[in-house]
Design goal:
This protein is about 60% helix and about 0% strand. It is mainly α and about 160 residues long. The radius of gyration is 33 Å and the shape is rod-shaped.
């Protein structure tokens, strides 16, 4: 999604410069209109739609998501920073409104949990491989064979070959 936005804004580059030439466009507190829309789109991509909950506010077409995008643009026109706007939404919706959980407090478990599980799984696999590996004993390899098998000439040749190695 971000790469599509980047391609869109790269293609719209000449339009952005034409927007700068408009009278009064640079007098907006948050920058020009195209810049505000670009920032608002990027910030809305970080916010969760309260209706869809699986989509960002930038991707959702629900009324709540449209209202969130509009509110983001309004707050940017008032001159607020991205961090202030994120805080505004967190105050109203809670931390779940952020698609990427913050890296503090109890949220570290979301970031470190997969790593801990991966390391634990690797430890279990390594231990299983160590337990299941055949042991190299100095004892006679045919000691635990039944008597009729041990008497077989082919088995005796294989056992003799194993002892030489």
């Amino acid at each position: 999604m971000r790469s599509l936005l980047l391609l869109f804004f790269l293609a719209a580059g000449p339009a952005v410069h034409a927007q700068d030439a408009l009278p009064g466009a640079s007098s907006l507190p948050g920058g020009n209109e195209a810049g505000i829309r670009a920032r608002a789109g990027a910030l809305a991509a970080e916010l969760r739609c309260p209706v869809c909950q699986g989509l960002s506010a930038a991707d959702s077409q629900a009324e709540a998501a449209v209202a969130m995008r509009t509110r983001v643009e309004q707050l940017m026109r008032e001159g607020r920073s991205d961090e202030q706007i994120r805080a505004w939404f967190v105050d109203r919706y809670g931390e779940w409104v952020l698609l990427e959980p913050p890296r503090h407090g109890r949220h570290w478990i979301v970031w470190l949990g997969p790593l801990v599980l991966l390391l634990a799984g690797a430890g279990v696999v390594a231990r299983r491989m160590r337990i299941g590996a055949p042991r190299q004993d100095a004892t006679d390899p045919g000691a635990d064979l039944p008597a009729d098998l041990a008497a077989d000439p082919w088995v005796q040749r294989v056992l003799a070959d194993l002892e030489r190695r």
